[in-house]
Specification:
585 residues; mainly beta; five-stranded antiparallel β-sheet
Length: 585
Amino acid sequence: HLDPYQGQVMFNIQPPQMRVQLGAFLKTYSTAQYTAFGDLLVLGAESGEIALVSTENGAVLQTIKACTLGVRSLAVVSSGDLGNETSGQDQGFRYANFGPGSQRTSTIFVAGGDGSVVCLQLPSHQQPSGLTVSSKTSVGEAVATLTIIDEAASPPLLLAAAASGSTFKVEVADTQIRQPEHDMYRRNNRDEGSAFGGTAASQRSNYRNTGVSMLPNATIGTSAATSNVKKISDAVRAPFTAIAAHPVDPTRFVTASLDGQLREWDLNTYLCRAVFEADTTTGTMSKGNHAQAGNPSSRALAPKQCTALVISESLDLLLSAWTDGCVRCHDITNHSLLWAHHQAHKGAVTSLCATASFKYYVTGGEDGEVKMWDTKTRELRGSGNAHQQAVAHIEFFEGEQHLLTASKDRTVCSWELGPNFSSMRRVTYHQTHLGPLMACKLSRNQQYFYSIGVDRKIHMCDLRNPAEPVKVADYPNIPRGRALNGGSADGPTEEGHSTASMLQSLTTSKDSYPTCFAFTNDERFVVTGGSDMVVRVWDTNTLYEPLAMAAGHSGVVTGIAFTCDQKQIISCSSDATIAVWNCYL
């Protein structure tokens, strides 16, 4: 007897109603599923075996080996003619009596810990010993759960979720499932939106969550004659630390995560295009303290956290800053490591920027020092130190003769650069916010800068006047504005819950603050991500209150960006998810 409240198979029932006669099939059960007619119970065991149990007398009708490493999930499709059906009731439990002429068949889909997706056919419930394996395929990694997308399709479509978080669409052929003529229980198949990683979630606010498999480019093993497997989403187990949108292609972006991997993503397929080559060498430190990848005399190096990403607009190059004091350069076309500039700083490199031609790049360290480098030789051109804590942002002015730097110590400085970046002279000095500064951005007219801080403020300051900020916005600790999907923050969503209640459940801390922000190309709007896990859109003309907001993360938002066509917002989080938001500005 399967107790629906305890989720266990019971042997001694008081008062005795039914006992499952397991006999030799005393196994550790991992999953169970009834057929749609309720006359059979399908049990999956850790041994990889499947058992059919009659709900009429509790007898085990047949056992069959389906997979190895345990049955992780079951999905059952039943069809047939019920014949002369009558109904009865026993102590409040309703059941069906199948009369003469009843023809019932079932197809059982099994997801195994060995990565297999197995299809078993039961041609007749009247002869349950006829259960056989009709097809078997593999998704290449352990499957955690299995769901039927369309049971009426021919061949049927399945959604398999791997233990790593990746999801696959499995099309199983040759199952001979007939269209049900009458179902006792008809499924209500709603489109829940596409999952962009992690566990599948309903599409509440025009976002798709994601995260990426540890081996996103692994070959998927399939049985060509019986099935077709297609990966539809990837997942990453490590928290994301940085994100950068491609400056020309709106379908591409790059992320960095705590597992030390850089990944390029495709917004058309929501899949990881490739993992960038890791730096496994230190090499012999030559002039400029750089090492060439692939040097056989090098020793192993374990890169730490990536703190900043810069993508070239025309050269297909990616620069990345790391907490091990290194700057690395990758080719975006083939994702290979071109060079690694080790010991750029004594401590972590916390910020990074480059000239438009990529001839020079500038780094900021955790000690507050700013350094300018020659990209070709990795030679130090000049340096400056006006900060006492980690440099949070570096940005060139138009013309690349001046530089803006901002630090966690609440200071923002502008610098005049000497010929060929040979020197740095501080021009202006601002002290803003009442707590650590998190991010900064120079305005388009080069006269103002925006900054966010732990003091829960968004500042707009005049570079020509070190006095009070021109505009100040309070970061709300309660939801205000409308939902990012266009609904009101107080109005009901399609699921029947108000967006405000959903956001309120995520914004319980009064100490939440903005952690990152990004601007549209025309600087009309700014989007912020915060420690409260909420994404907000603001009008820079007023900075009065958020125009829109959305909740999709379950961790601190660590990076955010607009795609180059301004049609989507991409955010990443410490919960190892990426969210893609459609924006209509």
